[in-house]
Amino acid sequence: MDAMVKDAGLGDILEKVRKGERLSLDDGRRLYECPDILAVGYLANIVRERLNGDKAYFIYNQHVNYSNICTNLCKFCAFGKDKESPQAYQMSVEEVREKIRERLHEPISEVHVVGGIHPDLPYSYYLDMLRGIKEVRPEIHIQGFTCVEIAHLAELAGKSVHDTLVELQEAGLGSIPGGGAEVFSPRIRAITCEKKLSGEGWLEVAKTAHRLGMQSNATMLYGHIETIDERLEHLDMLRQAQDETNGFMTFIPLAFHPKNTEMADLSRTSGIDDLRNIAVARCFLDNFPHIKGYWVMIGPKLAQVALSFGADDMDGTVKEELITRMAGGETSGVMADTDLVRLIREAGRKPVQRDTLYNVIKEF
Ligand code: V47
């Protein structure tokens, strides 16, 4: 295998990876440009096994998308709708509670709560929703509101991001999911999501949460109009932020789904690009404990393969995820925990059911 990596012209990167040395932007570019995906995957697997051995994590979770009404209306998103759209919806706090109540018989440990940037739901709605979820299922961990939503809530509350997070935490918020990061580049944001919180703003919210002891995830939406250098700049900004506050748990590359979006003329990502983004991220983000192969976006079969290309986490049972489905995602939004265990086992990894913060619930 070492010879294969050397033949691919990556011998010096192999040495760095073996020594645990940090990769440069130029190293990252070479990994993105190397035609030998097996060589890149081999490097990523070294890092993956050093950090996580042969474990592959999954979680028994539930998604609740409380509203698709959004003022940002990003060009890559098929989920967000204008308030006047016939497809617009919003759940009352009671409806959200009902979603949690419906599945009380299942061993769900996390609810993933995200929505759009709603023009007129009051701040109290979000606090009541958190409290309402906790009332119905007190032990559940709420991973909710992307950094973009948190910044919006702080504006609504007329408070600092810090004080808003403290209040949300008191109401039941446990951690922050990785959405809304997209690609930090101002060029990409100007073309695809000009109304959205800036990349720097996103990172500031994440770092504020970390300083409060709240952990979060990070994503990158790839496979649209971004360049390799813009991907690397995004990864570099995340790596620097993690050096500062060390609160990111997991990086999740998100494969762009074009259907029903304003960028519907673009093609879907290829399997190789999906694997490459996972592998390069694993090599480059040396300070991120986990890399997720999100089966909802790349499909369960590729997510299984990704466990040998740097990923150590498959996300979870999910159900009722709308963001990918609205954009033409073909995988059904639900997976049984037994299927996740089987996929992981067949990949030669050890299935570990985790909670949100990676405490082990069950080893198989
Ligand atoms: O923020 C929107 C992206 C994100 C599309 O933290 C799209 O563990 C692909 O962040 N094609 C939401 N992606 C999902 C997300 C997430 C999912 C699972 C786990 C975690 C985690 C986070 O989805 C959005 C946006 O970046 N997105 N539209 C699309 N057409």
Description:
By secondary structure, this protein is of the alpha/beta class. The protein has one domain (53-363): TIM Barrel, CATH 3.20.20. 45% of the residues lie in helices and 14% in strands. The chain is built from 16 helices and 11 strands. Strands 9-1-10-11 form a 4-stranded mixed sheet, covered by helices on one side. A 4-stranded parallel sheet has the order 2-3-4-5. Strands 6-7-8 form a 3-stranded parallel sheet. The chain is globular and about 60 Å long. Ligand V47 is lined by residues 76-78, 146, 177-180, 182, 217, 219, 221, 250, 252, 254, 256-257, 261, 294, 297, 315, 323, 327. Ligand V47 binds next to strand 6 and strand 7.
Write the layout of secondary structure elements.
Elements lengths: L1 H6 L3 H9 L5 H9 L3 H16 L2 E5 L1 E5 L27 H9 L8 E5 L8 H14 L4 E4 L2 H11 L3 H11 L1 E3 L10 H7 L6 H13 L4 E7 L5 H18 L2 E8 L15 H14 L5 E2 L3 H4 L1 H7 L6 E4 L6 H4 L10 H10 L3 E5 L5 E4 L1
Parallel strand pairs: 1-9, 1-10, 2-3, 3-4, 4-5, 6-7, 7-8
Antiparallel strand pairs: 10-11
Helix pairs in contact: 3-11, 3-12, 4-12, 5-6, 7-8, 7-10, 10-11
